[in-house]
Design goal:
Layout: H1 7-12, E1 53-55, E2 58-62, H2 65-76, H3 81-95, E3 105-111, E4 117-122, H4 159-170, H5 175-188, E5 190-191, H6 194-211, E6 231-232, H7 235-247, H8 250-253, H9 255-267, H10 274-279, E7 283-285, E8 288-292, E9 295-299, H11 306-317, H12 322-325, H13 330-350, H14 361-364, H15 367-373, E10 402-408, E11 413-419, E12 477-481, E13 484-489, H16 496-509, H17 515-520, E14 524-525, E15 533-535, H18 542-550, E16 555-557, E17 566-570, E18 576-580, E19 587-590
Parallel strand pairs: 15-16
Antiparallel strand pairs: 1-18, 2-10, 2-19, 3-4, 3-11, 4-7, 5-6, 8-9, 9-12, 10-11, 12-13, 13-17, 14-15, 17-18
The protein binds 6-diazenyl-5-OXO-L-norleucine (DON).
């Protein structure tokens, strides 16, 4: 059964909702970026009053303390931000199987100390045997769950190739060293947090359903339920990591691990072959860069829609005095919702893997196009999503994730979002190799107009084809001010990634929050279809919500939370502020 798109946020929020909320005040007269938001007892702005982590020499922000520590140790050993990112990635694959991965893919945005930007697309690809209608029955209807669970749901993994590529081009320390923390954590074990223990317990049944009752993976040896403090040991995964440590790319895409992966696929009716693994390569792409006010945004071009969408959003609302109107005031929220509606409609119409379809990127982010697209905006009432479709671009035919940020002492910065897609991906664990496979195929438009697990709709541009990459919403981003590194940002959250990154950036650039405040700040989300805005408790005041409803907006508070941001800001004196989301176990570590 298809999940509703906001169920992801609910999933994230399984340990409860807002607890402590510090109350702060917006100050309209403070124009300086680094003058912080001030207190106003009438507005509850933040999920919690978690404080940022500060350091001068390096910072790693990720979903798990052990993974951030792995990156930090590499920085302290003389590694650069790319080395630390690689170590963090492999550590996450061990300590955060929910989304950290070997069997998934992702995107990296890198800005080196000289200000040069690079983007690496290590998104999964459809296997060679994939075809457009592979998830439809003979009557042309979607077979429920086939693109989400089990062996057929996986794309060809990209993460290991991505890490090797990134290190070959930008790394400094020897490759073997970067795998050490992950191998240790897998072999000796990692202490489970309450959240992870619960996540594993909740999935016992589905792991058994997909892998068979005899599968030993993610089961507590004595058969009881996992509890906080238990040690999760993953010996097979340690062996796989050792193969990658020794043979780099070949340790995963060839030899024993590749054989194990293909045997697993054959066992369960999957279609990934040795040929697929051999042919998989990540792709360096030209970074998408655009000005927003006095800032330069460096972000990901397709096969993620995130970068184009983020720039469209920022530029739609650029003409409006958001700071003067106030954080999440009625006017501010209204223009943001209307921007989001138009942007997600464009995403559905235009975006797909640029190796297969022509995406009119320059047009979509041009002020001329955006002005035209905004012309039916009416501040007195809601535009109806049913009246909006993807915009017209002349000359063109219509046709559970994790983020980590790293900055080193020299100012090299890395922003990476990576995923298996759903929580624990397809739930398939490669027998003997101990890692989970993705269910990324669901990010394709498996049938035109049918929503995916995030409620996102797609069309021809994102239909399945062999070796094509499925469209993503991942939005790893780096922001510069005056030619200098200002922020490294990103989050998981499926379709809500784009709007969470958008709000976090605006919270700093327009609302003058610190990095941690911007992360702590409550969030809302709209994605064109369904025509509905959801918000975290207190993200929009009762009064603003009432007025928006009167204008025709469907706007609902949800129990769950939005975003799991891991961000870093560079303050004018060079101090790094690591800001990890208070909504989960996310932790920044710096020195
Ligand atoms: O690429 C995408 O947009 C999705 N596969 C991301 C999935 C995600 O963020 C799930 N996690 N929270």
């Amino acid at each position: 059964m298809k999940l509703k798109y906001w169920s992801l946020a609910l999933l994230f929020a399984f340990l409860g909702s807002c607890k402590t909320q510090k109350t702060l005040k917006k100050s309209e007269d403070k124009k300086d970026l680094f003058t912080l938001f001030e207190e106003d007892p009438s507005i509850k702005t933040f999920y919690s009053d978690k404080k940022g982590v500060f350091g001068k020499n390096g910072m790693v922000a990720s979903a798990h303390a052990e993974a951030s520590q792995a990156g930090l140790d590499i920085l302290k050993a003389g590694g650069n931000a790319v080395d630390a990112a690689v170590a963090t990635h492999f550590a996450l694959a061990v300590v955060f199987p929910f989304a950290g991965n070997l069997g998934g893919g992702g995107f990296a945005v890198i800005r080196n100390k000289n200000g040069k930007a690079f983007t690496l697309d290590f998104r999964e690809k459809a296997p060679l045997k994939a075809h457009r209608d592979m998830y439809l029955d003979s009557a042309g209807n979607v077979i429920n769950g086939l693109s989400l669970k089990g062996h057929l749901a996986s794309g060809v993994p990209g993460s290991v190739d991505g890490m090797v590529e990134m290190h070959q081009k930008h790394g400094k320390l020897p490759w073997t060293k970067l795998l050490e923390p992950a191998i240790r954590l897998a072999g000796e074990g990692v202490v489970l947090t309450e959240r992870e223990a619960l996540g594993l317990n909740n999935n016992v049944q589905v792991f058994e359903e997909v892998n068979g009752k005899a599968s030993p993976y993610f089961k507590k040896p004595d058969g009881s339920k996992w509890v906080k403090g238990d040690l999760l040991v993953q010996k097979d995964l340690a062996t796989t990591l050792e193969a990658i440590q020794k043979h780099k790319r070949e340790g995963f895409y060839a030899g024993k691990v590749a054989d194990q992966l293909v045997a697993e696929m054959q066992k369960g009716g999957g279609i990934i072959s040795i040929e697929d693994l051999k042919k998989y390569h990540s792709a360096w792409r030209t970074p998408l860069q655009a000005k927003y006010k006095e800032f330069n945004i460096i972000t990901m071009p397709p096969s993620s829609s995130g970068g184009v969408a983020l720039i469209q959003l920022l530029r739609f609302t650029e003409p409006y005095p958001l700071q003067k109107w106030g954080w999440n005031s009625e006017k501010t929220v209204q223009v943001m919702i209307e921007a989001e509606r138009r942007v997600y409609a464009d995403r559905a119409k235009w975006m797909g893997d640029m190796d297969f379809v022509k995406v009119p990127m320059a047009e979509l982010i041009s002020y001329k196009y955006l002005r035209e697209r905004w012309s039916n905006y009416d501040s007195t009432k809601a535009t109806k999503s049913i009246d909006i479709s993807g915009g017209l671009v002349p000359g063109y035919e219509s046709d559970e994730t994790t983020h980590y940020s790293v900055v080193d002492g020299e100012g090299n910065a890395v922003s990476i979002t990576t995923t298996l897609n759903g929580a624990y991906g397809s739930k398939v664990i490669v027998q003997g190799a101990g890692f989970l496979m993705n269910n990324e195929m669901d990010d394709f438009s498996i049938k035109a107009g049918v929503p995916n697990m995030f409620g996102l709709i797609g069309n021809k541009a994102n239909e399945i084809a062999p070796e094509k990459r499925m469209l993503s919403s991942m939005t790893p981003t780096i922001v510069e001010k005056d030619g200098k590194l200002l922020m490294v940002v990103g989050t998981p959250g499926g379709s809500t990634i784009i709007t969470s990154v958008y709000q976090t950036i605006l919270n700093v650039t327009d609302h003058k929050m610190s990095m941690q405040q911007a992360v702590n700040a409550l969030k809302f989300h709209h994605q064109w279809l369904p025509d509905r805005t959801v918000f975290e408790p207190n993200a929009i005041t009762e009064n603003a919500a009432k007025n928006l409803r009167n204008k025709g907006y469907e706007i609902d508070q949800q129990k769950g939370t939005l975003g799991r941001m891991d961000c870093i800001m560079v303050h004018p004196d060079g101090t790094l502020e690591g800001a990890s989301d208070p909504r989960a176990d996310n932790t920044s570590k710096g020195y």
